[in-house]
Amino acid sequence: MTGASRGLGRATALELARAGATVVCMARSTRGSATQPGLEHLTIEATAEAVREAGAWRSGWPATTPTPDRYAP
Fold it and tell me: Is 14 a member of any domain?
């Protein structure tokens, strides 16, 4: 599940976990890197822990999103 640290991605990951699915989560927000005030607690690590608490096998991976300047000539 991409975008799993918050919003629809997190909600979907948790719902899949409750249904017994194996859940692999990816998101850019990690502990210490969250940049939006008030959302520091919504990280990929927090989602992976919530998925585990829901009883599912889980894996959480930080993701990077390339910026256009990485590909510009």
Answer: yes
Domain of 3 in residue numbering reads as: 1-28
**Contact call for residues 30 and 62 (beta carbons, < 8 A):** yes
CA distances from 64 to 8, 9, 33 (A): 19, 16, 12
Is the residue at 17 inside a domain? yes
The residues pairing with 23 across neighbouring beta strands, listed in sequence order, are 58
Concatenated DSSP letters for 26-37?
Answer: EES--TTT--ST
What confidence tens digit (pLDDT) does each residue in 19-42 have?
A: 998 888 888 888 776 666 777 778
Question: Does residue 50 lie in a domain region?
Answer: no
The number of domains in the chain is 1
What is the number of other CB atoms lying within 10 angstroms of the CB of residue 35? 8
